[in-house]
Amino acid sequence: MIGRLNHVAIAVPDLAAATALYRDGLGANVSEPQALPEHGVTVVFVELPNTKVELLEPLGADSPIGKFLESNASGGMHHICYEVDDIIAARDHLSAQGARVLGTGEPKIGAHGKPVLFLHPKDFNGTLVELEQV
Ligand code: CO
Questions:
Q1: Which end of the chain is more exposed for a tag (fewer CB within 10 A), N or C?
Q2: How many whole angstroms from 32 Cα to the centroid of ligand 1?
Q3: Cα(111) to centroid of ligand 1, in Å?
């Protein structure tokens, strides 16, 4: 069921500074910032040869990463995203095994224009897991 690692997301307090760190410090290709109001974040994609890193900055008052940054002031790894072929089948399979799907349980359109879902970190060894249908 699980496919490739699509991305690792890192919450950052200052997107411009984090962009400079990856672009100038690590020499990575870094995208322009993209505002995703529905997800409460502004995102920058760091393109690596085998995967992506997403740098997430809070957008709006009730950003889902606002609380995370309150307790991790310098930022931190926020979630990991795995690719699946069929997000509904994956959701139903995981739900049947007791994993909790966050929000309404229905996929939203993610940063790459594809359906995504998030699974509760308590059901995945303390890691927030995003599933993306590719
Ligand atoms: Co993500």
A1: N
A2: 16
A3: 7
Task: Tell me which residue of 46, 63, 47, 64 sits closest to 55, measured CA to CA.
Answer: 46
pLDDT in tens, 47-63: 999 999 999 999 998 89
Total residue length of the chain? 134
Residues serving a catalytic function are 130
The distance from CA 1 to its chain's CA centroid, rounded to whole angstroms, is 19
Could you read off the pLDDT of 60-112 as tens digits, one per residue? 988 989 999 999 999 999 999 999 999 999 999 999 999 999 999 999 998 88
pTM above 0.85?
Answer: yes
Task: Supply the DSSP string of 12-24, one letter for each residue.
Answer: -S-HHHHHHIIII
Query: What is the extent of the structural domain holding 16?
Result: 2-133
Q: Within 10 A of 45 (CB to CB), how many other CB atoms are there?
A: 19
Total domains, the chain: 1
Beta strand 34-36 with 41-47 is: antiparallel
Looking up residue 71, the CATH number of its domain turns out to be 3.10.180.10
Q: What's the CA-to-centroid distance between 130 and ligand 1, angstroms?
A: 6
